[in-house]
Amino acid sequence: MIVQKNSILTILNTKIHPGESKEINFDVAKLHTSSSVDVPIIIERSKKPGPTVLFTAGIHGDEVNGVEIVRQLIAKGINKPKIGTIICIPVINIFGFINLKREFPDGRDLNRVFPGTIDGSLASRVAHKLIHDVIPNVDYIIDFHTGGSGRFNAPQIRIIKENKQLNNLAKVFGAPFVLYSKNLNKSFRDTCFKLGKPMLLFEGGKSFHIDDVITNSGVNGSKRVLHFLGMLNTKFTVSKPKKECVFINESRWQRANFSGMFRASIPIGSLIKKGDVIGNITDPYGKFNQFVKAQNSGYIINVNESPIVYQGDALFHISSKLKR
């Protein structure tokens, strides 16, 4: 565990003393109307020294369930630490959130331009400012995401393989699944990893949607991590996960063999066997009904909830190899 001296914290040229609560503005840019666009950063500091934890969401503007998780951490006072410091940035891509779009106005995916540049595109400049003005002050990061394109993710933590610290934190968080996945080049996670900042990336739910099960999983997992670090206020209780985490070494997408109207017939998170019927594809005219059968045994960790699919579209994300 990282324990820092409880010294004055300086973020975006603002000093935050031990025991202070402060909201500062991440001055992103101006709209074409000359109106300023600010991203609020909510900082809560205990008088007692301890780690600094950063909660982030909304790197993609359409991933509102992550925003809801961080909102609840703030609204319920979970972000007021017993020791150390908690920083919350509920919406990083405020432009996308305002316009209900995944990308920045420049068309770029913020999560593919890190660490950014001081004089690059708008998305690149935001990434640069986050990495240089905020990240150096933190010890741990939990970043919340959702599935995209109508695909619903089971609550899961994504980390790289063979990292003992991340493994332990993932177990503490207690999501139903932990998926080993590589750090994508120029992503927020990859950049923080290279800077030596351990990050848990949470995936759950789908775009433009808030789901209570996903929200509860994110909030409860965050409380468990804060409790593990000795930071959770004593007025909050910590629940144990209902089931032990399933660690997934490998997974694969099962794709549609036909175009048509699609309906999954198995709940997300289910353990299935090869050959099980897990959905069906029909045409609008009642002329055919194609059963979708599982191509391998495993857990269903993502389901396409779009009612219309085309041949080759991803339908299910299924674990293919579990950690032993």
Summarize the structure.
The chain has 324 residues and is of the alpha+beta class. It folds into two domains: 9-228, Aminopeptidase (3-Layer(aba) Sandwich), CATH 3.40.630.10; 252-322, OB fold (Dihydrolipoamide Acetyltransferase, E2P) (Beta Barrel). The protein has six helices and 18 strands.
> Could you please say which CATH topology of the largest domain applies here?
Aminopeptidase
First-residue to last-residue Cα separation: 27 Å
Cα gyration radius (Å) = 21 Å
CATH-defined architecture of the largest domain:
3-Layer(aba) Sandwich
Helix amount = 10-25%
SS content category: alpha+beta
The overall average pLDDT, rounded, is 94
Please give a structural write-up.
There is one protein chain. By secondary structure, the protein is α+β, with helices and mostly antiparallel strands. The chain has 2 domains: 9-228, 3-Layer(aba) Sandwich (Aminopeptidase); 252-322, OB fold (Dihydrolipoamide Acetyltransferase, E2P). Helices cover 20% and strands 35% of the residues. It contains 6 helices and 18 strands. A 5-stranded mixed beta barrel has the order 8-9-11-18-16. Strand 3 (21-30) and strand 4 form a beta hairpin. Helix 1 crosses helix 6. It is globular. The two termini are 27 Å apart.
